[in-house]
Write a structure and sequence with these properties.
CATH topology of the largest domain: Rossmann fold
Number of strands: 6
CATH class of the largest domain: Alpha Beta
Strand content: 5-15%
Largest sheet: 4 strands, parallel
Radius of gyration: 21 Å
Order of helices and strands: HHEEEHEHEHHEH
Number of helices: 7
CATH architecture of the largest domain: 3-Layer(aba) Sandwich
């Protein structure tokens, strides 16, 4: 397959794959044809599927989603894992109805890689980390906090922020409704 197709399948930028090829650090065998096309021999692995899950909370942070995916794929590549699929989602970490995450959890891969545990979920990560290995899925978190203190503070801030947003959102909706009624009368 062409290098551009392989990069897209891996969820990384073509330029990143091209740099890996030039540096000789590609995780899979490749050749350069006489015409200059780089072909990747993407043979199936023996150790099971690896899925990278990336998430951001809002659309303004969408650019970080691609950078997050590239960091995760580079992490997997450094360990010799071929990434079968990169799943990117824009949703709140407190939302338990995330369509893309739920599709992964319905049929768990052999390995699920996330950058930070809060990218997977804000609360209940320990449950997922306990249950998924029993379903044959290893959960790999790239960056873990050495002490739980930072995580506890981040969780508290996330809860307060989430509830404030919901409360202010309801107030704003109520105020807009009152304004529309006032203008119509």
């Amino acid at each position: 397959m062409k290098l551009s197709d392989w990069a897209k399948k891996q969820g990384i930028a073509y330029q990143t794959a091209w740099r890996w090829f030039k540096a000789g650090t590609m995780p899979v065998p490749c050749i350069k044809t006489a015409s200059g096309t780089i072909l990747v021999n993407d043979v199936p692995r023996q150790d099971g599927a690896t899925v990278v899950y990336c998430r951001v909370s809002s659309h303004p942070k969408k650019a970080d989603l691609d950078r997050q995916a590239e960091r995760c794929v580079a992490f997997c590549t450094a360990r010799g894992w071929t990434v079968d699929r990169v799943v990117k989602e824009i949703a709140s970490g407190m939302n338990d109805q995330r369509r893309k995450l739920n599709s992964i959890l319905k049929k768990p891969p052999s390995r699920l890689v996330v950058e930070h545990k809060d990218r997977l979920t804000r609360f209940g990560f320990a449950y997922l980390e306990t249950i998924l290995p029993h379903l044959g899925c290893e959960v790999v978190v790239m960056n873990r906090s050495p002490d739980g203190q930072d995580d506890l503070m981040a969780d508290l801030v996330a809860v307060v922020t989430s509830f404030c947003c919901r409360l202010y959102g309801k107030r704003r909706g109520s105020a807009k409704a009152k304004q529309v009624v006032k203008e119509l009368t």
